[in-house]
Amino acid sequence: MGDDAYKAWKSTTDHSDSSNPADGITAFQSPPGHYLVQEGVTSPTLTQLSLKPSSPPPRSSSDSPARSPASKHRDSIPLTVERRDTLSTIPSDGVSLVEPSFDENVLRALCELDCGVPLLLDRIKQGLVSCREASVFFKKRAALEEEYGKSLQKLARGTSEVYSMNDGKAGSFVTAWQSSMRLHELMAENRIRFSHRLNEMSEELASLAKEVDKNRKQTKELASRYERVLQDAEINMEKSKARLDVSSEELERVLLQKEGESFSESAVQVKPGVLGGKRVLGKAVAKGGLLLKGKNPGNILRQEDDIRLRVSNASDSYRKALNDTQAMRQEYFNFQLPRILRALKECVDEIDLGTKYHLTRYAFLFESIVLSDGSTLVPIVPEEATGLKALYEAIDNRADFKTYMQNYAYAHGGVAKGPRREGPAEEGFLPPLPTHNASYGAAQPPQSVANGNTQISDRGRPTFGIDLAEQMARDQVELPPILEKCCVAIEKYGIRCQGIYRLSGMARRVGMLKERLDKDMSSVDLDSEEWTADINNVTSVLKLWFRELPEPLLTFNLHQGFVDAAKIENDRLRHIRLHERVNDLPDPNYATLKYFMGHLHRIAQYEAENSMSIQNLAIVFGPTLFGQISNGSTSGHANVTMADAPYQNRALETILEHYADIFVDESEATA
Hints:
- The chain is mostly helical.
- It is built from 23 helices and 2 strands.
- The chain has helices spanning 2-16, 69-72, 104-112, 116-165, 172-258, 281-286, 297-377, 388-393, 397-412, 438-443, 468-475, 481-493, 507-519, 529-532, 536-547, 559-566, 571-583, 587-604, 607-610, 614-626, 645-657, 659-663, 666-670; strands at 449-450, 453-454.
- The chain has a two-stranded antiparallel ribbon.
- Strand 1 (449-450) and strand 2 (453-454) form a beta hairpin.
């Protein structure tokens, strides 16, 4: 039985590795006479295996046999894939059992644990679950991205084709519209490519998990085979020991009979630690042992020789089984087990590193697709490409309408539609009205009345659309005259009016007042009933003057600084930063802003009557004081975007709330 177990063990080790397993370990040596069977000895002492310094420490036979029930369920835990034959990487020079790059401390610690193999199997199972979850996530995410990309691509192409067939707007609008559809197609193609990358990553992870599971099963089967062979050898050794014990008992009985001792007086007790343990000869006889009393002495001698032969054979069999079992133990714990643990640990590393690599790759691809969409919408180099916002801002509705009007008049101008414009007098047609050209105007008296208003001669000092610093230097004033004139009238006649500055005046009256102020401001009397009857006309003219400044009051250069300061959440810090930006304004702008903020501050003090709080005033004048650049402008300043509107209002609201701190000196406050 011992020979069969040892042959099975050798065939197992030879099958797993073509090299000689004994080359990697120290040869087992037993001292002479160590395995001689002595009467009453239960088990021999195992000789410790001498190991190389790099090999894990040996393990006694008591460490090996049965595995705990808690570890049995771990046999089904999947293993990581080792793409190369890990079992063939064990060196055969006897110097080291692992490669230099492998963490030998981890391997040594695993060899010292009774649960090393179940531990690694459990860890591999966790790695496989994580790997498969990542694979499923990538696959589902790829499906979403592919559906989104194809839907967006179909929408953009369909919209572009439908618009080209319909009678839509032409000119700059159609150019911007078709270009924006092409941008959407480009983003859709990026999403489709992203979905393909995700599908590839999902398949790679699934393949990795499948290969790991296959290697896990192979390595687990190999470990189980080693353990079964070792357990069979130990069982065979125990059976040989039991047969030796029985033969020794029979020999004792023969020797007792030979010496003439009666069985009733020979209840032989064996000291503890002696082969066979405690036994009672009387019990053995009562169970069917041979009664030798009265036997022929010749028969007793022949029986004694026969029993001694059986004892010798049993002793030889037991010694052989013991040698084989010890050799298998030493080879398993000092060579095969480290090799199995090494293979499992390398599989753990492979599944962990593979999953981490694909997750990192996913993060990189995700960042790349988001950055690609961003650079498509807002190109990093505007000169090389046009973003979506710039395309839509390039729409020139005024030029498009002018072109459309000319084309329409050319195409339909010859067809009479509607009432006739001219005709003979006998049919009731009136003569055409005279054209107000330059010669007609020169022939009229300078004080002619039109619509009850006296015409005003142009003094050549316009104020609308003129640079703020230029008109103040021209008039040699510290404040724009139109600002003082309008603010005084508004505070005098409209400070209690409901919705002051929020309501607009009549367009015709506003245009008339603008023309008069632009020609001769000193001749316009804002105290007359013509303008005090509807003070909203005056407020609309003042807002129009601010809007028509070539550069807004708060300037293009400082626009971003005001917006950044307005984004600060801390009230005190936002106030300080806005105060700094106000101080950075040019002198004409600062003086104008100071006067106008004081005017609005006084308007807000009558909030209970005019319903114009600081917040409402900021909403009205935010876009006006920050200004906007018209479409097609070639200015080098940044365009004022609608996204900045809330921060423009917030900046102006903060300035109004802290008007005294920002603009009023202590000397002025005292005065």
